[in-house]
Structures are given as structure tokens and as C-alpha cells.
Amino acid sequence: MRIRLIAAAGAAAAALSLGAALPAFANSHASVAAPLAKGAKVKVFQDAKYKNRNTTFTENMWNLKHDGWNDTISSAINEGKRAVTFSSEPYFHGAHFSLAPGYRLPATGYRDAYVVGVGSLTFH
Known about the structure:
The chain is an alpha+beta fold. It has two domains: 1-26, no CATH class; 38-123, Crystallins (Gamma-B Crystallin, domain 1, Sandwich). The protein is built from two helices and seven strands. The protein has helices at 2-17, 30-37, and strands at 42-47, 51-57, 75-78, 84-89, 93-99, 104-105, 120-123. A four-stranded antiparallel β-sheet has the order 2-1-3-6, with no helix packed on it.
């Protein structure tokens, strides 16, 4: 029995030293970030019709104030495989609208639920 435990511990140590991947629960963010990374991607622009300052988000953004994008998104292109929902307030509160994968939005005011500014976004 003791030999089996020593062999198992040696195999585990060898796997870790060789850079084997840890299970998802080993990192508190891996369980959230890993699924989003497989298809979440939206490119946002400061002005309508995809002009001027832009950036790409690949994860949920609870509060765009931290990134300098609060109330500045005017157009977007969903380049990922997951739908993205834009909310007018931080933490997904307020008015909202969604953009399906592959869709473009030349100006946020073109939607039925007019959103004056965007305060957060989430992928689903």
C-alpha cells in the first residue's frame, strides 16, 4: 500500500513539474473564464458606424467605468459565437438589448429598447 502511495505522489509531482494542466477548480477564475473564452468576443466603438476609438471584450464586464467605456459605446460588432447583452447601468441593471453572434449594430439608438449609454455587458 505504501509503495502505491509513493508512486502516485511521484507521478503527480512529475505531472506538475512537466506543466500538466490543473483542473478547472484549481483556479477560481478558470471555471468562469474558460467557457467565455471559447466564443465570447465583441468589438465596440466610441462612435456610430464603427468609427474612432475601439476595443474588444472577451469576458463579462460588470462595470465599464473601470475601463473607460461607460456611456461611450455607440456601435458594436459581435465577432464571437455567443450573444452579448448590453445594459445601460453597471452590474446589468437598467435598459438592455442583445446582439446575436455575427450581428452588427451601427448605432445603439437603432434598437427598440433605446439605451442612452452602456454601463455593462454580459455574454450568454
